[in-house]
Amino acid sequence: MAAWRGADRVLSRSLLEPTVGELLATLPGLAEADPDEGADVYGDGVVARLEQRVAELLGMEDAAFFPSGTMAQQVALRCWAGRTGNPVVALHPMSHPELWEGGALSVVSGLRTVHPTREARQPTAREVAELAEPFGTLMLELPLREAGFLLPTWEELVALVEAARERDAVVHFDGARLWESTVQLGRPLPEIAGLADSVYVSFYKSLGGLSGAALAGPAALVGEARVWRHRYGGQIFRQFPQALSALAGLERELPRLPSYVAQARVVAAALREGFAEAGLPWFRVHPEVPHTHQFQVWLPYEADRLTEAGLRQAESTGRVLFRRWSPAGPPAVSLTELELTSPSLSWTPSDIRTAVADFASYL
């Protein structure tokens, strides 16, 4: 962490880096906060203002703030199960509820999941149409992070939604990173969100907020979700720091995301060139043309060896190209995720190729 914090050139600042003091120092200027505005109490004030802003941005009737996306999404799927009368949720096995929520959909909410596909890609409309059993809700993670931040095309997304409707199912978007999906899908946020019956969005992923999420959809559904939010322990007395940081992210980072996506595509191409020039035995940048400002890099080395090489590069040169690596499945193959934000915009393709050659020298 010290090496990352001390680097003068990075592609993105890690959310893990700031100290308590640094975070506190950002609060007075968040979203041009009015220091005389009344503090929020159980979701009014600035929290309600954030909810209204999210509903406007997504073109939805209403939105509710949640302390976590995990809670927001479980509540959404639970509410839809009650309304459809079907507790079965169709989703990808690599989606967040299946991998990172401790089985909460079944343990807490009594829901059951089915998988249109097990391949590391978005499902197809045909796979949804041909699922062997009825389901009440189709949940689509946009983008699908674990598969490489992958998005369908706009036409594929429309077909997926239509296939679910033909099965008498509702559609929920896991839009933790929906904010940056407009470039690949070629549509504005209200048109994308308008395909779904409900959408969850995150405030710390992509927007850089402290924490928190929102569930947006019809007013009746969001009203019911607020009741369940209280039951789940999410009706918190005061949340103005999270709400202010979310508003700041919507104001400052949301307009910049298209430029980050464009830079990600430049960096991905330069990485491929750099790896080839460095003579690495095998590499993969996935997807070759990133769908968002995040993508995967795969290399044929043990994860610890790659992480150590990146650390040595950061300490020696002040440049952070890669951070932590993880085993990718096959023996001696590892992957890392790259995120391109404001600091990356100063990097040229030549800078990337030079940094790749330097990184390779530490292997």
Automatic annotation (TrEMBL):
SUPFAM superfamilies noted in UniProt: PLP-dependent transferases
Alphabetical list of Gene3D superfamilies matching this protein: Aspartate Aminotransferase, domain 1 (3.90.1150.10), Type I PLP-dependent aspartate aminotransferase-like (Major domain) (3.40.640.10)
Family classification: Belongs to the threonine aldolase family.
Protein name listed in UniProt: Threonine aldolase
Domain of life of the source: Bacteria
UniProt keyword Metal-binding, yes or no: no
Cofactor(s) it depends on: pyridoxal 5'-phosphate
Species of origin: Streptomyces cirratus
Aromatic amino acid beta-eliminating lyase/threonine aldolase domain boundaries: 38-272
Keyword terms: Pyridoxal phosphate
Any Pfam family hit: Beta_elim_lyase
